[in-house]
Recover the amino acids of this structure.
């Protein structure tokens, strides 16, 4: 039988497990702090526990600890892109960014992705598997340990569709906010989805204080379907209704992400349509110049079109920001570092 991952247990669950092993409940708290505050990677580091207990724990539980196999550091703004190896040999990407309000980590929620967005590198080989809560958590932990600086914000915007991995996502958010752990509040967490309507509705019912980001990318179904296959499943009208309800239930404003692709969705007429769609939606538009990937021929909009698009939205009363490109020199779109790593591995194997 596969062992339970000890890093994926909430404190009350760990207390139950530890007392079932015949230990006092306070031991569970100590173990929890080693795992979620001191961010250890090995039972041997739990130095205030008896050797015997450490061995018992190792017998009963696995312990997720990601191994950093590559890091790229931007010479422009210090952004770091990490490549982590999981216990089963899969690799994932996470990004660390320094902003004036603190350090932010962008994590992956799945190995690969099955959503098929046309401009995205993470989905080219489909979905490999979901990440466990501990694997999501340990991306944040490893990065905090490696940088030696506190992580204050977490965005679930790396590879994968978080609402396609719902239960693990929720467990991850709760563990991240545990006072006996890193204590990262829900308000400092953003979850980005391509628009899985039942997932958005379910999330709204949880009444969390996280920020929901919707990957919109087009103001009409037709254009959206060209870019995102998920738009064939859920009509824009239903996606927008789910987001409005998300705001109504949680009081949290939604971020509408919009990747600008030259000649596809970046003209002023489209900006007017977007403004119409977002009026009364209680959110703002976050414009992202599309990051070209080598497997597709989408091209970034030029600076003038981006500015004109933004101005049009603002004239119509829709708050809009253009996402600052972080780590432009190491950038490669979402999922590209992983792909180039896998290509190199395959080449080595072929030699
Ligand atoms: N699956 C989730 C989260 C991961 S993608 C979602 O779809 O929201 C995070 C964001 O990056 C999404 O808005 C996605 O559409 C966008 N994105 C992916 N590849 C991109 C690229 N090459 N250029 C610009 N934005 C991209």
């Amino acid at each position: 039988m596969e062992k339970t991952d000890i890093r994926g247990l909430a404190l009350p669950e760990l207390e139950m497990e530890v007392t079932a092993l015949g230990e006092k409940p306070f031991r569970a708290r100590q173990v929890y702090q080693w795992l979620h505050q001191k961010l250890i990677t090995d039972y041997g580091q739990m130095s205030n526990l008896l050797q015997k207990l450490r061995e018992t724990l190792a017998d009963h539980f696995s312990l997720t600890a990601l191994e950093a196999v590559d890091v790229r550091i931007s010479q422009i703004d210090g952004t770091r892109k990490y490549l982590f190896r999981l216990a089963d040999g899969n690799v994932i990407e996470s990004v660390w960014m320094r902003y004036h309000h603190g350090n932010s980590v962008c994590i992956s929620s799945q190995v690969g992705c099955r959503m098929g967005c046309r401009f995205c590198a993470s989905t080219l080989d489909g979905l490999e598997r979901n990440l466990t809560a501990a694997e999501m958590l340990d991306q944040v932990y490893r990065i905090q340990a490696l940088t030696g600086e506190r992580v204050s914000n977490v965005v679930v915007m790396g590879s994968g569709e978080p609402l396609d991995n719902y239960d693990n996502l929720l467990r991850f958010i709760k563990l991240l906010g545990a006072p006996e752990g890193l204590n990262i509040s829900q308000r400092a967490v953003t979850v980005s989805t391509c628009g899985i309507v039942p997932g958005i509705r379910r999330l709204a019912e949880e009444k969390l204080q996280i920020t929901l980001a919707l990957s919109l990318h087009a103001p009409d179904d037709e254009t959206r379907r060209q870019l995102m296959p998920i738009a064939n499943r859920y009509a824009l009208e239903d996606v927008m209704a789910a987001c409005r309800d998300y705001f109504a239930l949680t009081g949290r404003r939604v971020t509408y992400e919009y990747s600008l692709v030259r000649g596809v969705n970046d003209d002023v007429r489209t900006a007017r349509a977007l403004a119409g769609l977002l009026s009364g939606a209680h959110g703002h538009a976050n414009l992202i110049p599309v990051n070209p990937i080598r497997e597709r021929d989408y091209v970034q909009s030029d600076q003038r079109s981006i500015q004109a698009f933004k101005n049009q939205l603002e004239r119509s009363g829709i708050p809009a920001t253009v996402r600052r490109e972080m780590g432009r020199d190491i950038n490669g779109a979402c999922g590209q570092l992983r792909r180039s790593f896998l290509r190199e591995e395959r080449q080595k194997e072929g030699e």
Remarks:
- Residues 38 and 145 are 9 Å apart (CA to CA).
- The two ends are 37 Å apart (CA to CA).
- The first helix runs from residue 11 to 20.
- The mean pLDDT is 95.
